Amino acid sequence: MDIEHTKIPGCLILTPKRHPDNRGFFSESWNAKTLAAQGIEIDFVQDNHSFNTEAGVVRGLHFQAPPHSQIKLVRCGQGALFDVAVDIRRGSPTYGDWFGIELSFENGRQLLVPHGCLHGFMTLTPNTEINYKCSDHYAPGTDGGVRFDDPEIGIDWPLGAILPILSDKDREAPLLRDFKSPFTFEDSRA
C-alpha cells in the first residue's frame, strides 16, 4: 500500500495495490497488520455506505465531537467524488486549512481523515458510491458541522455551473468563525 502525507497532520492518502488479471483485479482496501507496520493502528468499528444518484451532491462538512470523534477511511466504490478534510483542532499549525482529493473507482485512492477534522465530499458523477470506515460508532448527540462553502475556509469545490445538492442540515450549518471547536491538536500522524 502506498502512503502519502498531506499538509494536514494525520491526514493521509492510501493507495492500495491492485492485482489485475483477465477477470478484473483484487485489492486489499484495509489490512491492519500491514498498516500497523507503518505506524497506523486504528480499530475501525463501523462501515458506512453512501449512494448518490446525481453529480453535485455535497455532504458535509461533518464531525463527531469527543468522546465519540471518528477517524474515517474514505474510498469510492463506483463513480468519482471530491473528498475534503478541514483541520479544526485548536492549536494545530493547519487550523482552518483544507485538503481535497479526487477519489474514484478508477484511481483506487483512499483518504484517511484524522480525529479533529471536518469531512465532506461532492459527487463528480451520477451514481457514485462512497464507502468509509469509522473508528467510533455514530453518536447523534455529538455530531455537528460547518458550512461547506464557508468563505474563510475557501474550499475550491469543483462545482463549475452545477448547483450543489444539499440537505437542510448542511445548508443551515454555522460558519467556522461562529463555531467553537471541541478538538485540540495533538501531534500525531494518525
Number of strands: 15
Mean pLDDT value: 94
CATH architecture: Sandwich
The computed structural class is mainly beta
Strand content of the residues, in percent? 35-45%
Q: Classify the fold: give the CATH topology.
A: Jelly Rolls
Proportion of residues in helical segments: under 10%
Q: What about the largest sheet?
A: 6 strands, antiparallel
Apparent shape: globular
CATH superfamily: Jelly Rolls
> Would you list the SSEs in sequence order as H and E?
EEEEHEEEEEEEEEEHE
Number of helices: 2
> Could you name the CATH class?
Mainly Beta
Query: What Rg is obtained from the alpha carbons, in whole angstroms?
Result: 16 Å
| Number of domain modules | 1
Question: Can you list the strand order of the major beta sheet?
Answer: 1-2-11-7-13-5
**Contiguous uncertain segments of 5+ residues:** none
Distance between the termini: 16 Å
Report on the structure:
This protein is mainly beta. It has a single domain (2-184), classed as Jelly Rolls (Sandwich), CATH 2.60.120. Helix content is 5%, strand content 41%. The protein is built from two helices and 15 strands. Strands 1-2-11-7-13-5 form a six-stranded antiparallel sheet, with no helix packed on it. A five-stranded antiparallel sheet has the order 10-8-12-6-14, with no helix packed on it. It starts with a strand and ends in a 6-residue tail after the last strand.
